[in-house]
Design goal:
Length: 366
């Protein structure tokens, strides 16, 4: 039998095992563009079928880039930089040159200083052991920054293949679909979804007679919140539109709850603004610190939701870390959920997040 790959996810097409990747009923083999059953269901019913591919299988697959010769485009999610920047990417992609692309810019407030943000990303990459040629900011959905990026990719690739690499769900396939649409007019050729792990194999899009643009499966990062919450909750905490910052004037000994998934205690410091950047759909509750433990115990999953019932079954307990902030505008980052920006003059806060998804602080982004 001729070897064919699913156009939507890159899995090798097979007609024998409906539970394995790439399954398609033999009656569909006649079609010109073959889509596996899983992609078909995702596309038409937005329903995901689990596959028997492990984190390690994906990593191994992507690591074959080490032995290739091409340009690596590392796509990250600008809303979850901690969770999506791949530390020591060079171990996976070898000597190949790398450009860094911050995707989903449409989610950040328009007032974001892009020059500062690029500079910050460059530093982050360096600290993670990644040498990048250049940093770009784009929105694959809205098209922002796409033209500049495509012309730069054309320059940097020097007639070689281009590999689109990143953790799951950063928008690699959406980005490639946008490129295909720009050049051929065909939309949604590759399967995309808000479920992590959509793309299962390499998908080659020819650039010319000899070289291709290659979509790759996402690298799985177990520190991402998406592994600990239900699909319904994932929809709520993933912002869909530009984030509207929510501002709370707090005195010390007050607490903010982000649904019941994260919590921030204002322990010490002068009255000040806490500017919260989260999905507009995630409810924020303010309460007295004294009251907070009680409130959480009695109302998590109800007033403090998400988590919904399904998430509560898999959510690790919240763990705390304390941060002393001296005199710099600082973001307290809850990876995958959002961040809180404070002025921070001699301020102490205690932050809680699900175990395994560690809170961090950074100089303010916005
Ligand atoms: N707001 C916003 N969402 C985006 C953007 N690009 C992609 N997304 C969304 O992010 C989710 C993941 O997109 P995919 O393109 O499937 O991501 P991927 O990196 O290919 O994921 P895997 O194949 O699982 O590794 C989808 O819900 C997309 O709609 C963007 O520019 N802005
Ligand atoms: Mg994909």
């Amino acid at each position: 039998m001729e070897i064919i790959f699913c156009q939507g996810c890159g899995a090798q097409i097979q007609i024998f095992d409906p539970d394995k990747p790439g399954y398609t009923p033999s009656s569909s083999l006649e079609k010109e563009n073959i889509l596996c059953k899983r992609c078909f269901r995702l596309k038409h019913y937005n329903e995901i079928q689990d596959v028997s591919i492990t984190d390690d299988d994906f990593l191994k697959m992507v690591s074959s880039i080490r032995n290739a010769n091409g340009l690596v485009v590392h796509v990250i999610d600008i809303f979850d930089v901690n969770g999506s920047l791949i530390k020591s990417l060079p171990r996976i992609t070898g000597e190949n040159p790398i450009i860094l692309v911050g995707n989903k810019m449409d989610l950040l407030p328009k007032s974001t200083n892009q020059r500062k943000l690029k500079q910050w990303l460059r530093t982050q990459a360096k600290e993670a052991g990644i040498k990048v040629l250049e940093v770009f900011l784009i929105s694959s959905i809205k098209g922002h920054g796409m033209e500049e990026l495509t012309s730069q990719i054309e320059q940097y690739r020097k007639q070689r293949d281009v590999f689109i690499v990143g953790t799951t769900n950063v928008g690699k396939s959406t980005f490639i679909n946008r490129l295909i649409k720009q050049t051929t007019g065909h939309g949604d050729v590759i399967t995309t979804s808000y479920f992590p792990g959509t793309t299962l194999g390499f998908i080659e899009i020819p650039l010319d007679d000899k070289t291709s643009l290659i979509d790759t499966p996402g690298i799985v990062n177990r520190q991402q919140i998406s592994h600990y919450i239900s699909e319904e909750d994932m929809k709520l905490v993933t912002p869909k539109n530009e984030i509207k910052p929510r501002v709370y004037q707090l005195n010390s000994n007050q607490t903010l709850f982000f649904g019941g998934l994260a919590r921030l205690d204002f322990i010490k410091g002068d009255r000040q603004s806490f500017v919260c950047y989260f999905s507009n759909m995630l409810p924020i509750h303010r309460t007295k610190l004294d009251n907070a433990d009680n409130l959480y115990e009695n109302h998590v999953g109800e007033m403090l939701s998400p988590p919904n019932e399904k998430t509560l079954e898999i959510l690790p307990e919240l763990t705390e870390s304390t941060f002393k902030i001296t005199n710099e505008k600082t973001d307290i980052v809850f990876p995958g959920l959002g961040w809180v920006s404070i002025l921070g003059e001699d301020t102490t806060v205690r932050a809680y997040s699900p175990k395994g998804v560690a809170v961090s602080v950074r100089k303010s982004l916005i």
